[in-house]
Amino acid sequence: MYKVNEVFETIQGEGSFTGAPAIFIRLQGCPVGCSWCDTKHTWEVKQPLRQPLGDIVIKTAETEHWAAVDAADLLALFRHEGYQAKHVVITGGEPCMYDLNPLCNALHAAGYSSQIETSGTFDIKAPLQTWVTVSPKVNMAGGYKVLQSALDRANEIKHPVAMEKHIDELLQLLQHTDTTAKLIYLQPISQQRRATELAIAQCKKHNWRLSVQVHKYLGIS
Ligand SMILES: C[S@@+](CC[C@H](N)C(=O)[O-])C[C@H]1O[C@@H](n2cnc3c(N)ncnc32)[C@H](O)[C@@H]1O
Ligand SMILES: Nc1nc2[nH]cc(C(=O)O)c2c(=O)[nH]1
Ligand code: SF4
Ligand SMILES: [Mg+2]
């Protein structure tokens, strides 16, 4: 069973799929503890806050409520909601705390493509067709280490930046990673002007790409 914080259809606002209609599945639970995390309501799994999936999908605000579901429940929900997107983004929380093989295989069998947003701090358990976005997290409260295997598996690496030291961390992380077939993105932390200017300058310097969380500029989920 997967613990799901929310399910919604929107436009992917980050990375190389930016602009693609997508169904988001946000899984509950993350031990990494990034101070600037924009989804802190997904960190803890509180048993009294378990709800039916029907209540989760009609959420109008961010809450810590979650539902326990399997892949079939999610596919039935997509049909019930009339979602038209054919791309599914599995995020969190930290989705790689879960074995994502059953979910991704069921999505593929039903004609969807899949993408995972992960911090790279857990083994990635997903089929090869799944597009993997690793947003490596270093020196976080949880003390979790980015796994080299996650960086190697990544189709894209999307690094959140606000300060010069974040660039140094990324360069350090990439030292032992073959990046020839990977897309490398810098993503400013929130919409801070300074972070965005730093990201633009460093993208030009290193020939990396810029990802700006388009949904936050648009005021959509
Ligand atoms: C909320 S995380 C969930 C998935 C996974 N735990 C991870 O960190 O990749 C989804 C994406 O949002 C990014 N993110 C989180 N908070 C952010 C913020 N305040 N500004 C910019 N990006 C942020 C993360 O780096 C990650 O790429
Ligand atoms: N529109 C939209 N795009 C996103 N891309 C990654 C997101 C995430 O929270 O993982 C996200 C999100 O929350 N909304
Ligand atoms: S790893 Fe992802 S969900 Fe967890 S705290 Fe960091 S940004 Fe938030
Ligand atoms: Mg988000």
TrEMBL record:
<feature type="binding site">
    <location>
        <position position="93"/>
    </location>
    <ligand>
        <name>S-adenosyl-L-methionine</name>
    </ligand>
</feature>
<dbReference type="InterPro" id="IPR027609">
    <property type="entry name" value="rSAM_QueE_proteobac"/>
</dbReference>
<feature type="binding site">
    <location>
        <position position="91"/>
    </location>
    <ligand>
        <name>substrate</name>
    </ligand>
</feature>
<comment type="subunit">
    <text>Homodimer.</text>
</comment>
<feature type="binding site">
    <location>
        <begin position="36"/>
        <end position="38"/>
    </location>
    <ligand>
        <name>S-adenosyl-L-methionine</name>
    </ligand>
</feature>
<comment type="pathway">
    <text>Purine metabolism; 7-cyano-7-deazaguanine biosynthesis.</text>
</comment>
<keyword id="KW-0004">4Fe-4S</keyword>
<comment type="similarity">
    <text>Belongs to the radical SAM superfamily. 7-carboxy-7-deazaguanine synthase family.</text>
</comment>
<dbReference type="GO" id="GO:0016829">
    <property type="term" value="F:lyase activity"/>
</dbReference>
<feature type="binding site">
    <location>
        <begin position="135"/>
        <end position="137"/>
    </location>
    <ligand>
        <name>S-adenosyl-L-methionine</name>
    </ligand>
</feature>
<keyword id="KW-0460">Magnesium</keyword>
<keyword id="KW-0949">S-adenosyl-L-methionine</keyword>
<feature type="binding site">
    <location>
        <position position="39"/>
    </location>
    <ligand>
        <name>Mg(2+)</name>
    </ligand>
</feature>
<keyword id="KW-0408">Iron</keyword>
<feature type="binding site">
    <location>
        <position position="30"/>
    </location>
    <ligand>
        <name>[4Fe-4S] cluster</name>
    </ligand>
</feature>
<feature type="binding site">
    <location>
        <begin position="11"/>
        <end position="13"/>
    </location>
    <ligand>
        <name>substrate</name>
    </ligand>
</feature>
<dbReference type="InterPro" id="IPR024924">
    <property type="entry name" value="7-CO-7-deazaguanine_synth-like"/>
</dbReference>
<dbReference type="InterPro" id="IPR058240">
    <property type="entry name" value="rSAM_sf"/>
</dbReference>
<keyword id="KW-0671">Queuosine biosynthesis</keyword>
<dbReference type="InterPro" id="IPR013785">
    <property type="entry name" value="Aldolase_TIM"/>
</dbReference>
<comment type="function">
    <text>Catalyzes the complex heterocyclic radical-mediated conversion of 6-carboxy-5,6,7,8-tetrahydropterin (CPH4) to 7-carboxy-7-deazaguanine (CDG), a step common to the biosynthetic pathways of all 7-deazapurine-containing compounds.</text>
</comment>
<feature type="binding site">
    <location>
        <position position="37"/>
    </location>
    <ligand>
        <name>[4Fe-4S] cluster</name>
    </ligand>
</feature>
<feature type="binding site">
    <location>
        <position position="34"/>
    </location>
    <ligand>
        <name>[4Fe-4S] cluster</name>
    </ligand>
</feature>
<feature type="domain" description="Radical SAM core">
    <location>
        <begin position="17"/>
        <end position="221"/>
    </location>
</feature>
<protein>
    <recommendedName>
        <fullName>7-carboxy-7-deazaguanine synthase</fullName>
        <ecNumber>4.3.99.3</ecNumber>
    </recommendedName>
</protein>
<dbReference type="InterPro" id="IPR007197">
    <property type="entry name" value="rSAM"/>
</dbReference>
<keyword id="KW-0479">Metal-binding</keyword>
<keyword id="KW-0411">Iron-sulfur</keyword>
<feature type="binding site">
    <location>
        <position position="26"/>
    </location>
    <ligand>
        <name>substrate</name>
    </ligand>
</feature>
<keyword id="KW-0456">Lyase</keyword>
